[in-house]
Design a protein that fits this description.
heterodimer; A: about 110 residues; mainly beta; 6-stranded mixed β-sheet; 5-stranded antiparallel β-sheet; 11 strands; about 0% helix; B: about 120 residues; 7-stranded mixed β-sheet; 4-stranded antiparallel β-sheet; globular
Chain lengths: ~110, ~120
């Protein structure tokens, strides 16, 4: 059974703070790691797909890094805004899984004005 | 907007009943996966359909079955509903040629409540 863990479970920050959270995944049979942002009552929105060890991706104020050897990824948000409030999910894809996503339980981010 | 639609939005059923949920993928996306999200957990993989065949299955009982149509849309059927089947059901779609390292697009989900 694959174990994908996210920490913390929830996070409250003030507007303007920078924040980061962690996704841990198996370091063997790695194929890809996906990050999603999920706002209440909406579809999960794809942020990044990461495949290479040492990969760094950026989208506006959000960035992510990947370490496949030790099995973790960090998601960073710089200068958090209330509209960043959402659940952030990571999902591991193994090498023989036809793209099956194994999700962590998510980190719930609340940004207070 | 990812263009993936699911219906219905919400559904209330009683134990023992059967339910059918539907997913219409974004244009050109021929691979459809279904996920169940119970409260407080991340989505869990149910199964994946490609070329109208179930290609891979997660750890779900046979009460969960599916179908894919020639236009790539898909149905998820759950028989003999249990209280524990109450969850949000998501479908995710992609093009088969892109593999597991390309974006998968999710629908908004169907909220199933079993009483």
């Amino acid at each position: 059974i694959l174990n994908v863990e996210q920490s913390p479970q929830s996070l409250h920050v003030q507007e303007g703070d920078s924040t980061n959270f962690t996704c841990s995944f198996p370091s063997s049979n790695f194929y890809a790691l996906h990050w999603y942002r999920w706002e209440t009552a909406k579809s999960p929105e794809a942020l990044f797909v990461m495949t290479l060890n040492g990969d760094e991706k950026k989208k506006g104020r959000i960035s992510a890094t990947l370490n496949t050897k030790e099995g973790y990824s960090y998601l960073y948000i710089k200068g958090s805004q209330p509209e960043d409030s959402a659940t952030y999910l990571c999902a591991f894809v193994g090498g023989t899984s036809y793209g099956k996503l194994t999700f962590g339980q998510g980190t719930i981010l609340t940004v207070h004005p | 907007d990812a263009g993936v639609t699911q219906s219905p939005t919400h559904l209330i059923k009683t134990r023992g009943q059967q339910v059918t949920l539907r997913c219409s993928p974004k244009s050109g996306h021929d691979t459809v996966s279904w996920y169940q999200q119970a409260l407080g957990q991340g989505p869990q993989f149910i199964f994946q359909y490609y070329e109208e065949e179930e290609r891979q299955r997660g750890n779900f009982p046979d009460r969960f079955s599916g179908h894919q149509f020639p236009n790539y849309s898909s149905e998820l059927n759950v028989n003999a509903l249990l209280l524990g089947d109450s969850a949000l059901y998501l479908c995710a779609c992609r093009s088969a040629g892109t593999g597991g390292a390309d974006t998968q697009y999710f629908g908004p989900g169907t909220r199933l409540t079993v009483l």
